[in-house]
Each structure stands twice: as C-alpha cells, then as structure tokens.
C-alpha cells in the first residue's frame, strides 16, 4: 500500500469515526492484544489469516499474502481497513450512543467473529433496547470454535465484557 493511500485511509478513519485519536488507539491496541501478531499466513478455522488476525478472504489478499511475510505496519493497515468496514456497519445497525469502551469492544468482537456474526447476534438487539448489561452478557455466548468451547475465547469474552461495562 503506498504512502498516500495510507494517509488517506487513516484520515478517512479518523473523520469517519468522529472520535479522538485516543478512541482509535484504544481500539487498535485492544485488537492487537487479543489477536496477537503473525508475520506469516496461518490457517484460522476456515480461512488463512495474517498479521493481527486479518482473514485473507479476497483473491487479491490471498495472492498478496498467502506465501509472504508482513510487517507490523502493513498488518496494522490491513486491520484499520477492516475496522473501517466494521465502523460503517456499526453506524447502520447500532442506534444508541456508545461509550469509547463499548465501541472498542464491539469493534474488537466483530473483528473476531465477523460482520455476519455481529448482525446475527442478539447483542445488537439488546444494545438498541438500551439493555447494556444484557448486551454484554451476549458476548459470553461467542466462545465456540467449530462447536467446541475455546478457553482462549472464554478469556477474551470475559475481558471484552468487563471493558464493555466499565464506565
């Protein structure tokens, strides 16, 4: 990705988020901590992923990264592109105000389970009814990998839930 495109992406994200640098940094940091970093592509349940858990879902991503290595900067750029997509979905489906923590958790959760996962969850329904605690409890349901309980996801969802509820 060239430098001008990087700058435009970051500016679009900052404007689109209508949020402080603090909010963006917190969200990116949260995702980095939960996902970890891999410079090489790896098989992740149903697709290859690279960097900070970015799924290689398009032919161009697969061609570019399947057998390549990626720097942390490149990985962060891929993550930010995905965060922008998630943000746009949140703008459409979440009808209530969110704290910075709630926003960061929703983006992190969606980054992990995918946009369809969020859209088919009861979490958004609870949120839009302003039932924030019930919404946070919905996070606990998303701890399975291929129909098996995943201890790492239990820990992640617990941490996401605590942050979501933090004032």
Task: Describe this entry's structure for a reader.
The chain has 167 residues and is mainly alpha-helical. The chain has one domain: Lysozyme (Orthogonal Bundle). The strands form two sheets. A three-stranded antiparallel beta sheet has the order 1-2-3. A two-stranded antiparallel sheet has the order 4-5. Strand 2 and strand 3 form a beta hairpin. Helix 5 packs antiparallel against helix 9. The protein is globular and about 45 Å long.
Give, in spatial order, the strands making up the sheet with the most strands.
1-2-3
The figure for the number of domains is 1
Q: In this structure, how is the largest beta sheet organized?
A: 3 strands, antiparallel
Task: Name the helicity range.
Answer: 55-70%
Mean pLDDT: 89
Per CATH, which architecture? Orthogonal Bundle
Low-confidence stretches: 13-17
Order of helices and strands: HHEEEHHHHHHEEH
């Amino acid at each position: 990705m060239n430098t001008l495109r990087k700058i435009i992406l970051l500016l679009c994200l900052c404007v689109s988020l209508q949020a402080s640098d603090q909010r963006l940094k917190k969200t990116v940091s949260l995702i980095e901590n939960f996902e970890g970093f891999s410079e090489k592509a790896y098989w992740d349940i149903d697709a290859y992923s690279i960097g900070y858990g970015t799924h290689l879902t398009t032919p161009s991503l697969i061609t570019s990264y399947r057998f390549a290595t990626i720097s942390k900067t490149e990985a962060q750029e891929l993550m930010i592109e995905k965060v922008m997509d998630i943000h746009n979905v949140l703008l459409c489906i979440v009808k209530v105000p969110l704290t910075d923590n709630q926003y960061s958790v929703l983006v992190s959760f969606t980054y992990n389970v995918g946009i369809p996962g969020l859209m088919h969850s009861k979490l958004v329904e609870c949120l839009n009814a302003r039932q924030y605690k019930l919404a946070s409890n919905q996070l606990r349901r998303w701890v399975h990998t291929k129909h098996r309980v995943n201890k790492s996801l239990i820990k992640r969802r617990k941490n996401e839930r605590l942050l979501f509820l933090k004032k």
